Amino acid sequence: MDESEKAGRPEILDFLSDLRSLKSPCVFKVLIASRSYYDIRIRLKECGYIILKDENLLDIEIVIIKGLNNLSKKHEIPEGNLDRVRDDLIKCCEGVFLWVSLILGELEELVTDGFSEVDIAKLLKSLLSDLIEFYKRIIIRLKENGNKGQICEGKKMLAWAAFVERPITTDEFGDAIIIPSDRELFTPLDGFISQLRISYFERRIANNYGRLLAVINTP
Asked: What's the mean pLDDT when you consider all of the chain?
């Protein structure tokens, strides 16, 4: 619900709220998912609700602690140096596992190059728990550090990942990326795919766009 257009949201909320009060032999069940925005919360206050971040707090704490422990062991960080980071992550995560995963990835990059307490404090302060701002930061960094080819490739990858009609394999994904995306007629030469196919395509994704895209292995 929080992703809905604000202009039309009151009408939708009124409709959903009215459904609850109507008496009918037909049982109509509705599940509404949303961030805790005031207008949504106050309009649906009479409905039953679950605060998800309270339900998964213990699980997300385990993920944070395990992630930081692995980071400490890998980079030989003295015990206790990341205690404040742990507390800040637990406080700010708002029950969002994805945010925690992305933050741990950012911390991995930071400590690899050496870090101070001030560096970590700045990182956490800049990211908070807003995924939209987090993604904006990733895009800005890609534009600053990447070349024109990487940026074009990244846009193409995001477009395919967002609009492909079915789950695709990494081989299919890689082959789709090498096809030109301009509007001119494209007539491939013999061996086009084999010559331009990217080896170890999963590594390409992880190294250049790992904060935006992830490869999921399914049975």
From this structure: 80
Q: How many CB atoms lie within 10 A of CB 213?
A: 15
CA–CA distance, 119 with 121 (Å, rounded to integer): 6
Locate 115 and state its tokens. 């870090």
**Which two tokens mark 151?**
């940026």
Distances (CA, A) of 195 to 120, 175, 190, 203, 215: 44, 11, 9, 18, 23
Residue 54: predicted pLDDT: 81
Neighbours of 120 (CB within 10 A): 19
Q: Report the distance separating Cα 130 and Cα 171, nearest Å.
A: 33
What's the pTM value of the predicted model, to 2 decimals?
0.60
* Cα(137)–Cα(161) distance, integer angstroms: 20
C-beta separation of 1 from 9 below 8 A: yes
Q: Which of 61, 169, 82 is nearest to 124 (CA)?
A: 82
Q: How many helices (H) and strands (E) does the chain have?
A: 12, 0
